[in-house]
């Protein structure tokens, strides 16, 4: 990863106007932009994002990596077994962190998501420390598709709104 490319992406992100309404994310249009003081943490954090998605207690783990070069996304079940489908991005080879760290992250995500019928909880792992990112109620503005499409149907049918 080239640090100058990362810095340029941050500069651009801080100066761009957010076009959430054009992407169907009107609920996130008003927010204040900021950067963490320790850029090194940011650079490490963007390498791996672990997200737990809750669909009425049916959950799966999503790991995004190589986001700024050749974005890949792997999906796992709750026992950390790789699932045989993709969500928007093709998966790749990835060495999971220790089972203990994954279990801790899973427990945090479960607690945060328990009051919602659908939410994505983003947690970051940096130097074996867990950081909270955000809770997303409209990931990908609802446009990201599973491949094969039968997985799209499977998860869509699980959502029982409260």
Notes on the protein architecture:
The chain is of the alpha+beta class and 162 residues long. It has a domain of 113 residues: D-amino Acid Aminotransferase, Chain A, domain 1. It is 28% helix and 26% strand. The protein contains four helices and seven strands. Strands 3-2-1-5-6 form a five-stranded antiparallel β-sheet, sandwiched between helices. The longest helix is centred in the middle third of the chain and has 15 residues. It is globular. The termini are far apart.
Radius of gyration: 16 Å
What number is the mean pLDDT?
A: 73
- Which spans have pLDDT < 50 for at least 5 consecutive residues? 36-48
Count of alpha/pi helices: 4
- In the CATH hierarchy, the architecture of the domain at 46-158 is 2-Layer Sandwich
Structural class: alpha+beta
Q: Under CATH, the topology of the domain at 46-158 is which? A: D-amino Acid Aminotransferase, Chain A, domain 1
Largest sheet: 5 strands, antiparallel
Order of the strands making up the biggest sheet: 3-2-1-5-6
**Elements, N to C (H/E):** HHEEEEHEEEH
- Terminal-residue CA separation: 43 Å
Shape: globular
Instruction: Count every beta strand, where a strand is a DSSP E run of 2 or more residues.
Output: 7
Binned, the helix content reads: 25-40%
Given this structure, which CATH class of the domain at 46-158 is correct?
Answer: Alpha Beta
Proportion in β-strands: 25-35%
């Amino acid at each position: 990863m080239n640090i100058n490319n990362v810095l340029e992406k941050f500069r651009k992100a801080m100066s761009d106007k957010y076009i959430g309404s054009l992407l169907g994310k009107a609920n996130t249009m008003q927010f204040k932009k900021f950067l963490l003081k320790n850029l090194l943490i940011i650079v490490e954090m963007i390498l791996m994002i672990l997200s737990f998605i809750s669909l009425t207690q049916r959950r799966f783990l999503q790991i995004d990596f190589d986001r700024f070069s050749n974005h890949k996304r792997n999906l796992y079940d709750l026992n950390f077994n790789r699932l045989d489908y993709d969500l928007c991005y093709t998966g790749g080879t990835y060495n999971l962190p220790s089972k203990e760290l994954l279990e801790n992250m899973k427990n945090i995500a479960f607690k945060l998501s328990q009051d919602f019928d659908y939410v994505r909880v983003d947690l970051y792992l940096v130097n074996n420390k867990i950081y909270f990112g955000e809770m997303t109620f409209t990931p990908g503005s609802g446009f990201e598709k599973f491949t094969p499409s039968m997985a799209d149907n499977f998860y869509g049918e699980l959502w029982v709104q409260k």
